[in-house]
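Researcher: Please predict.
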Amino acid sequence: MLRSPTPTLSEAIVATLTYSSLFDYALDAAQLHRFLVGHRASREEIEDLLPNCVHIARYMRENVCYITLRGREELFEQRLVADTVSAEHWSRCLYYGGFLRAYPSIRMALVTGSLAAGNSRIGADADLMCLVDDRRLWSTWLVIRWLTRLSGGFSEPEFCLNYIVGPQKRQFPPSIYIAWELAKAVPLFGGQHYFDILFQNRWVYDYLPNAEDLVSRDLNVEPVRDRRGQIAEWSARLLDTRIGGVVELVEELREKWVIKRKYGNSFAQKKAETEIKYHKISRNVALLTRYSEELKRVGLSHLGLWYDVNESIKSLQSQLSQGLK
């Protein structure tokens, strides 16, 4: 649960727009409702209050209302560009998801990050989270890395694996950043596993209570059937043989050796517990620190949310002090 005091509706609107502005992103009315921070309200209640919020600016385009903080009106033009780029990147992402679907060891693939939010930029990559069978965690990670590199040879976007987790790893540490990432994720396939993750991390709805009723549907992409798809299917079959077992063992030993050499024994053990992170913890610290500063700037440092953000920063800094990057 978020600490008290929780935000009023007007405070929640400002807190939500403050967070999205960290990513240079203006929200539309549906997104503001879905990702409203710390306050459950209907879309009608939000839209009725918007004209009275002195901290926000609005822009209408083809019956869609875009909203951001006053003083960040340049984000409206950026949002229109992002909508176009995101649509182009989504078609590429669905195709790439067909490669991942060829691997039985990959139980779920989620689109996260800027593409899930509709905030892709020219030259940006697409973030993915995969749920992988423990028996083939490391070998699948190896194959996906090569597929990811191969994807850059097709066209934008390239694909970035922020997380690859085994079935046992279902719970994440609470923070506004992870809540937002999980709530906006879009399943390419394996939607039931995504719903299970949300169920086991119900604290997400303490931060984003409206998101509980607005979970993304499973796109359920089909495996690709062209020549590249045949290569993916062939390598998937190979991973399921004894050769795949040998590759799994060798790759696990190699990765643990690299991690141990770079971070030491304690991190090597933690890294081996069916979780492979890709984005740096230091990046999350920087983001949450900016959010804390911005909440204070707009006069919301009295909220429990502000204290929760700072507790998340301390937790991440503790991980950094232990050698995690």
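Model: The longest strand covers residues 106-112.
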